[in-house]
Amino acid sequence: MTATTTTRVVSPVGQGIRAAALEASVAGAANVLRDAREVVLLAHVQPDADALGSALALGIALHRRGVRVTVSFGATSGGDERVPESLRSLDEYGLLVPAAEVPAAPEVLVACDTADIGRLGSLAGLLDTAGTSILVDHHASNPGFGTVRVLDPTAEATVMLVRRVLAALGEPLDAVVGRCLYAGLATDTVGFRTAGPGAHRLAAELVEAGVEVEPLIRRIVDTHPFTWLQALAGLLADARLEPDAAGGRGLVHTSVPAAVVSAFGQEEVESVVGHLRTAAEADVAAVFKQVGPRRWALSLRGKGTVDLSAVAVALGGGGHHDAAGAVRDGDLTEVRAALRAALTAVTG
Ligand SMILES: [Mn+2]
Predict the structure, then answer these.
(1) Taking the model in full, what pTM does it have?
(2) How far does residue 244's CA lie from ligand 1's centre (Å)?
(3) What residues make up the domain containing 134?
């Protein structure tokens, strides 16, 4: 697939049909949740603010309606089920529990921001045991799963779809639910850089509902232990630029050794790619995070010119056009080679 295929021509009729289908699925999700007595809401493994914010926003609204609510996320294959410290404060009612405490056969299961079933990690089996399952997601690579599928790749964040389900339920926005939504909205749009009019309108609505933006966002993206600064300097010093990679569009990459991954939080490790992507000479930034002796979690960021969702799918992962990821086994040299090959295949 070449970069030119990303400019898709969609007829107004096609758009109308898609909008109507989405509206119907939002209404379908609200109908299931309106009558539910027990709901388990899951974020993806190693949850970010969009995944956990989506699950908590919906969970808090349902909890207030008297529903028995559990929010959680599965462990990775490497056993990681740490909760990002910066997101704990979103959990106003203590709904978040470890994966081991999630009911084994919930009446309703809601999967939030999960690009495929594997992203549910150790809790993926709940899809089979739940009475009804609802998917709420915005990943372009999502094949679709679950009984009710609120899936819209044009939404900038899953929280935008959660907002629609809340509206269909007749649930008002307040600062507590609003913080969960704002956290996902601000981070998935990279600080509103990729936000369209709808996302900006939702942000305004959330501020009107009482969300205090600066302390919320500072805690999530602008706060790191001092020792991280030295570690980051080392990772950036090890960065390499390959101008000929990605069909000449350029690749910049670095790797995060297991010792650094385990010494710091997700907030730190996930921030590295944001620094790499500022390199002018490369359209693609990649960070290889060592999550096992021979296992690497790959984060990819782009600048609109390379379909990284397709690259990630080719590597067994998924994601969005300009932000995607995958997990690969092998030594670092092999995994780097696999990325180069996938970039070449996609850029033609
Ligand atoms: Mn998301």
Answers:
(1) 0.92
(2) 30
(3) 10-221
